[in-house]
Amino acid sequence: MGAMAWGRGPKPVMVGATGADFTTIQAAVNAAPETGAVIRIQPGIYREVVHVDKPKIQFRGEGKDPAKVVLVYGNSAASTCGTSCSATLFVTGDDFFAGGMTIANDYSKHSDVPSQAVAVKVTGDRAVFRKVRLLGAQDTLYAASDRCMDGRSPCTVKRQYFADCYIEGHVDFIFGDARAVFDRCEIHSIPHIAGGYLTAQSRSKPEQDSGYVFNHCTLTADPGVKNIYLGRPWRDYSTVIFMHTKMGSHIAAAGWSDWKGVPTPRLPTATYAEFHSSGPGANPTAREKWSKQLTAAEAKKYETKVFLAGTDEWNPTKVK
Question: Which of 21, 106, 125, 172 is catalytic?
Answer without folding.
Answer: 172
